[in-house]
Structure formats: C-alpha cells, structure tokens
Amino acid sequence: MLSVYSKLFLEYKETEYLKKADKMFNLLLQRATKTQIGKSWGLNFPYSSKFVNSGSAVKLLIFKIQQILQT
Predict the structure, then answer these.
(1) Domain positions in the chain
(2) What pLDDT does residue 57 have?
(3) ∠ CA(41), CA(46), CA(50), 5° rounding?
(4) pLDDT tens for residues 6-63?
(5) Residues with Cβ within 8 Å of residue 20, at least 6 apart in sequence
(6) What are phi and psi for residue 45, nearest 5 degrees?
(7) Across-strand partners of 35?
C-alpha cells in the first residue's frame, strides 16, 4: 500500500495520498525486525525455512510439501 499511495501522490499531488503513504511507512517501521545489517520484515518466525535457519529442530516445511507433491 505504501507504493500505491506514493505513486498516487506523485501523480495527483493530493495531500491525502501523502498522509496515507506516511502512515503506511510508519507502520512498516514499527513492525520491522532488527537484524545485523539493518531492518527486515518477515524473519521473526519460530521455525526454520529454506531461507532462514532459526536453530529450531522443526523439519523444513517446504521440504515436506515437496515430498508430498512428488508422490
């Protein structure tokens, strides 16, 4: 939504779109996860995935789904 409101503001120059873009931007900042290299979104999961190792003993969900689909 941030991208949409930003583009609408750039196109139509209506302050309502700028206010909504600012609100979306602040919501994203509030929900960011701090990482070693800055901020990130979507990494604060209590399980491992193909892309993130949480150190959890839970098996990879993606791997299991692939196994099911291949049978």
Answers:
(1) 1-31, 44-71
(2) 46
(3) 70
(4) 999 999 999 999 999 999 999 888 888 787 888 887 755 555 555 655 555 444 555 6
(5) 1, 5
(6) -110, 145
(7) 38
The burial of 21, by beta-carbon neighbours within 10 Å (0-12 exposed, 13-18 middle, 19 or more buried), is given as: buried
User: Given its phi and psi angles, is residue 34 left (phi above 0), alpha (psi -120 to 50 degrees) or beta?
Assistant: beta
| 68 vs 49: which has the higher pLDDT | 68
DSSP string, 22-60: HHHHHHHHHTPEEETTEEESS---SS--SS---S--PPP
